Amino acid sequence: MDLIQQIIERAKSNKQRIVLPEAEEERTLTAADMVLRDDIADIILIGNPEKVNALAEEKGLKNIGKATLIDPLHCEKSEEYAALLAELRKKKGMTLEQARELVKNPLYLGCMIIKTGDADGQISGALSTTGETLRPALQIIKTAPGITCVSGAMLLITKKPEFGENGVLVVGDVAVTPMPDADQLSQIAVCTAQTAKSVAGFDDPRVAMLSFSTKGSATHEVVDKVIEATRLAKEIDPQLKIDGELQADAALVPGVGAKKAPGSDIAGKANVLVFPCLEVGNIAYKLVQRLGDAVAIGPILQGIARPVNDLSRGCSVEDIYYLVAITACQAMDAK
Length: 335
Known about the structure:
Layout: H1 3-13, E1 17-20, H2 26-38, E2 42-46, H3 49-59, E3 68-70, H4 78-88, H5 96-102, H6 106-115, E4 121-124, H7 130-141, E5 151-157, E6 168-172, H8 182-198, E7 206-210, H9 221-236, E8 241-246, H10 248-252, H11 254-260, E9 272-274, H12 278-291, E10 295-302, E11 308-310, H13 317-334
Parallel strand pairs: 1-2, 1-4, 2-3, 4-11, 6-9, 7-8, 7-9
Antiparallel strand pairs: 5-6, 5-10
Helix pairs in contact: 1-13, 2-13, 4-5, 6-7, 8-9
């Protein structure tokens, strides 16, 4: 069974309630129909009921009736949600009237449904920008305890079973924080290891903090940042298996790891790679994807108290379908 199927089966084993606030969008609605058909998650659709039902009929979608459909302009809990949102944002000067208008926005409404415990995760982005997806999540759901930095992980499924976890690597940050400081980088390491557990199903995440130096082979302030981040990550999670600074070959190749970092429990055995900055991470995963013919799944947003994930506006139906399963797996672990 490949990793994608494993993720789907894990989602099926403990169905979560996933909000799709862009229900009037064709790809989103088609993916929702597939998720409901395959019994992967319970789906909450936000959109105009007449438009959603007309689109479902036009596309011949037979399972949409199994979803909970909420009209953002006529939600029976809108006043309750508005009052809570105004309370959450009162220090920022939000009035009740402003909150009433915001909960008509499907992205805000979805996050309020999660905040009040009526859903477990949300996916948007087929129509919305990353900023539009993240803003309500950070204002309403907020970051996980002890975490202030949101980041994005990527699953890399390679054709090299000798590396990572039978060829699978989880890497971060590839999507959100351009130039993390040591504290932020330590949080990215902890969150990426957690994603490796909850989504990729790794029983034993082994985190390598990557740099252009291995154990003092070079000196520079950016190397110092990685060393400090490694120390801080161990403070956040004393059980975390992590080492750094390590060059990529020292992290992945046993012979190189033994030579460059003798005595390391991670060198040559890493299955989670943490990049020193977003620029490096984004370039690296795209090179592996294109030149190494790897499958890249993500980015998977991490660090939010309940999972909220962002799609590319060029996403396919299958992208949305798979991300529902991924979000469900994250939601199980977030409870």
